[in-house]
Design a protein that fits this description.
The protein is α+β, with helices and mostly antiparallel strands. The protein is 29% helix and 21% strand. It contains 17 helices and 22 strands. Strands 1, 8, 9, 10, 11, 12, 13, 14, 15, 16, 17 and 18 form a 12-stranded mixed beta sheet that branches. The radius of gyration is 23 Å and the shape is globular.
Length: 527
């Protein structure tokens, strides 16, 4: 989805830009510890941006709170399929896939007692664009949202359909228009939703608490009465907390601690493969990496599979294209063929290609966030050094990384490592990370592509015919794998560890849905 450079945040772009130091928050972690059920403690792996208005929030860790306080018009189940929630059922689709008519549940109410109406849903669809928020690109295909009556809404797209509309865009989180627009700053830190929990307390940069809403309009009846979210960005600290029963659940199990926690008495582990794409992108705008032979040489210089096996086998899986495996399972692109196309570890071939196509003093700059991607960058630098070249690895904070990789300047970098998370549609990866409109916004490789490359990406997002979209996407994916503007690295799992008195907890593929405390398929409790 298109964003400005300042718009990129951790909900979509996965980097390790810590907003609060681990030391500053280490003393704030504390769980019920005995399963008494009074306050359930969930320890998040990164600090929240403390934006709880869904219209403006674009942060995974704030959304982990938001998803309990607000209802979506549709919501993802545990298979990443949208199911009706505030909508009574599937929409009526007209005008060749460019008009959607939604029926709203008449029983639905916000926590202040106001009815959820079509006007609220219309505002939720259009406000991100009208207010130029970070989420604008998720809804800018909508031309108008017309209220038919209190419980019917007509949404018209532009002249063309939008392929992912029924797969993700319909899952808009619904806010009360009148309350939100009366005082947006107040709403952002003291929101009112229609979900099974209500927002009760915020201590910024420390914790946020939600409480079961006993008058919830729907059928869900949460077992947990009160839930506290705290962030502990130090992985070792999170592991210590769950082992000591200082918290009930932690998110983000470090790879090296998986076996430790798996054998720990009183601790259960939970994992779900997520729709994430971790990658190393090459600067295709300036410098030696504009040559695909140099890109292939670097890919030949190290073994991605060996790196994953030694550094992330418990929590990561290899990828062979820019489409995450969990998404590929739905679309059935020929992943085995892409795997065969990727350069295998061959240091002799790497050296031969670099000797022929790169400068003698070639020492590329690799910029990366901290964590496993920094480890990967160091592995590549070591392997390049072994064949007479090397690399300069720069570990940058999130803001600096964003400002740097979007420049396309060879003096700033030749490669960068980042990640992206989206939904169950190729558009979320191919348009956002490879379309030319996203240069200086979401991506910094500046890949020109073959004739028709960018047009095909745009045509695919403007089609509602899935077979047509497949036929457009498959050659695009094949070209990316062959020409390597970005080298697929691995997909991450969403992981959690809980004390054994926590019942019915399961990891969700979408990071913003963790923890799912209550749904048709689960209802977390303590015993």
């Amino acid at each position: 989805m298109p964003r400005s450079a300042d718009d990129i945040t951790r909900r979509r772009l996965l980097a390790s830009g810590a907003a609060v130091s681990a030391a500053a928050i280490a003393g704030c972690i504390g769980g019920s510890g005995n399963g008494d059920g009074e306050t359930f403690h969930f320890t998040q792996e990164q600090a929240r941006e403390e934006n709880f208005d869904p219209v403006i929030s674009n942060d995974a860790y704030s959304f982990q709170v938001i998803q309990h306080v607000f209802d979506g018009l549709y919501e993802f189940d545990d298979k990443l399929t949208l199911q009706p929630n505030l909508a009574t059922g599937e929409p009526t689709v007209e005008r060749d896939g460019t008009r959607y008519i939604f029926e709203i549940e008449e029983a639905a109410e916000f926590h202040n007692g106001d009815d959820v109406t079509a006007e609220d849903v219309a505002h939720s669809f259009t406000a991100p664009v009208e207010e130029e928020t970070e989420n604008a690109s998720e809804y800018d295909m909508i031309e108008s949202a017309e209220v038919i009556d209190d419980y019917q809404l007509q949404v018209d797209l532009g002249e063309d359909p939008y392929g992912p509309f029924e797969l993700q865009t319909m899952g808009v989180t619904v806010v009360p228009k009148s309350v939100r627009t009366d005082d947006r700053d107040e709403f952002n830190t003291n929101p009112i939703g229609s979900g099974p929990y209500e927002f009760v307390e915020l201590q910024e940069n420390e914790y946020v608490e939600i409480q079961r809403y006993d008058d919830y309009w729907g059928d869900l009846d949460p077992n947990l009465e009160r839930v506290r979210f705290e962030a502990h960005e130090d992985p070792a600290g999170r592991v210590s907390d769950i082992r000591a029963s200082n918290t009930d659940v932690i998110a983000g199990i470090p790879n090296d601690d998986w076996d430790v926690l798996e054998s720990e008495d009183g601790v259960n582990l939970h994992s779900a493969e997520s729709p994430t794409f971790m990658y190393m992108a090459f600067n295709c705008n300036e410098g030696p990496t504009t040559n695909p032979e140099v890109r292939r040489a670097i890919a030949h210089s190290f073994s991605m599979s060996d790196f994953i096996e030694s550094n992330g086998a418990n929590v990561n899986s290899p990828m062979y294209s820019p489409i995450p495996p969990v998404v590929n399972d739905v679309w059935e692109f020929p992943e085995d063929e892409y795997q065969d196309m990727l350069p295998e570890y061959d240091p002799d071939q790497a050296q031969s290609l670099l000797d022929e196509h790169a400068p003698d003093d070639f020492t590329p700059t690799i910029i990366t966030p901290e964590g496993i991607r920094a480890q990967l960058a160091e592995r590549i630098a070591t392997r390049l050094d072994e064949i007479g070249y090397g690399a300069d690895v720069q570990v940058l904070d999130f803001a600096t990384l964003v400002d740097t990789y979007t420049t396309g300047n060879a003096d700033d970098y030749q490669m960068y490592l980042l990640g992206w998370t989206g939904g169950p549609d190729p558009d979320f990866y191919l348009y956002s990370l490879f379309h030319e409109s996203q240069e200086e916004l979401n991506q910094g490789h500046f890949y020109e592509g073959s004739d028709g490359f960018h047009e095909a990406i745009a045509d695919a997002r403007n089609s509602a015919d899935q077979e047509e979209r497949y036929d457009l996407y498959e050659p695009i994916i094949r070209e990316i794998v062959e020409e390597l503007p970005a080298l697929p690295a691995f997909t991450q799992d969403n992981t959690m560890a809980s004390r054994d008195y926590v019942q019915d907890l399961q990891a969700h593929p979408e990071v913003t849905r963790n923890p799912t405390l209550v749904a048709d398929y689960t209802n977390v409790s303590v015993e």
